[in-house]
Amino acid sequence: MALTNYLMQTVFGLLLFYHFGLGLFDKTSPAVNIFFFAVLLYFQLKFSQFWLQHFNQGPVEWLWKGLTYFRFADIRKKQIKR
Fold it and tell me: Is residue 74 a part of any domain in this protein?
């Protein structure tokens, strides 16, 4: 999930702070920017927790591995039968 979270944070940061998004970097104080970061980090952690309960690896990691080895493995976790 590291690569997925890194790319997700980059995209959200670009959309929040750069001119082609909301352009908030010059309009907000550093304290507000840190607050935005903390909120984004919280949602990323919750999304990662949810994702890893159902899948073995992050979506970007799965795509990268599949393109590297020219085959895409099953991303879902195996269900343990009791």
Answer: no
